[in-house]
Amino acid sequence: MSFIILLAGIVLLIVLITSAKLNAFLAFLIVSILMGLANGMQVHEIVPAMEKGIGDILGSLSIILCMGAMLGKLIAESGAAQKITTGLVDAFGRKYLMWAMVLTAFIIGIPLFFDVSFVLMVPLIISVSKRYNIPVVYIGLPVVAALSITHGYLPPHPAPTALVKQFGADIGLTMLYGVLIAVPAVIIAGPLFATRLKKYMNKPPDTFVSKDLPENELPSFFNSLFTTFLPVLLIAVATICQQFIQQQNIVTKILIDIGDPPVAMVISVLYALYSLGIRKKKSMTVLMAHLTDSIKDIAVILLILAGAGAMKEILTETGINTQIAGMLDNFHVHPLLAAWTISAVIRIALGSATIAGLTTAGIIAPIIATSGVDPNLMVLATGAGSLIFGHVNDGGFWLFKEYFNLSLKDTFKTWSVMETVVSVVGLGGVFVLNAFMH
């Protein structure tokens, strides 16, 4: 019965947003209340659950998204994005520009959370799109595919790292196998799939679109690159200190602290204000106006993500993730396929790749020792399943929709299909590696 309620709730959410043209945040709240009531929750239980869901998601994302928008605006207005894109074209040639962008995204996606890397790459994507008259979805989706894959497959991202521990896997081998699987997944779900996306001629929001500046007014290539990827550097150094340095001292503790994503983003914005603004003799009034403008376009994104968080918490409180997992646990299939399937169903139901992966771990972990399956591959199969078919309860779905200015229908045809391709190719890669090992 709970699964039917879930399905009905998702359908109602889509209808309210598309047919009734209701604000997405309001639609999420309505559906969350109705689904809670339908699952037997009392109003006095529903409201705190929704508040917790909203608080959890905004608590973790609001600083990152706001600081990312500010950094992106400064990068766009200063001409840093223009300088980087020009440098990429000079280095790779326009013919291979997409591949250069995908490679960049894959590299920065390894140490950074998806949301951080997403907001960092958006100004570059839009700058490339505008400067070379390339459809923004055509150039942007392969980049986002690379970010999504690193988020779902590779440590040190939260779910893969937790799965490595719970499955008794080796973090180094998981990284190695993950990269081997990630490369074909990125190619197929990114540049190859993008060949079907040239018809999407929608224009992105104006926040990250700036006029081309003359060459003599642009910051240097090194300054542009360093400022843009400073969060990557700070977070990567912190990750290395946490993962590979056993004896922590005052220096490593400071590096870990400043590499915490919200702290790293604040430091990066402050540095960008100096390196791309004050040092270029721009007034604080102009710079603060840029920061204010940057927040306007992401306010609606924050509300939509908050609504998705409320719905996710209602579903978690009703225990539907455990019910679905329990149903699938009774099927007698290959352990790798079982891990992928359970993770995929929970992902579709709840929208969170992290929750899907961690919930699956509790079910699958006990059978690893008796099944003889490589635990590193179990991590990757679970991670691949957790990425499948992101839709209206997936925060990434709304980030992609709003930043690239797509309709709901077109977001399904681009983001949701890309995520499904990533998931299926990942499962195929896991079985190929498993065949070589046996």
TrEMBL record:
Coiled coil: none annotated. GO terms for cellular component: plasma membrane. Its main location: membrane. GO terms for molecular function: gluconate transmembrane transporter activity. The chain crosses the membrane at residues 6-37, 57-76, 96-124, 136-154, 174-194, 221-245, 251-274, 295-311, 337-365, 377-400, 420-437. It comes from the Bacteria. Pfam families: GntP_permease. InterPro entries: Glcn_transporter. Keywords: Cell membrane, Membrane, Transmembrane, Transmembrane helix, Transport. It is found in: Cell membrane. It is a multi-pass membrane protein. Belongs to the GntP permease family. This is Gnt-I system high-affinity gluconate transporter.
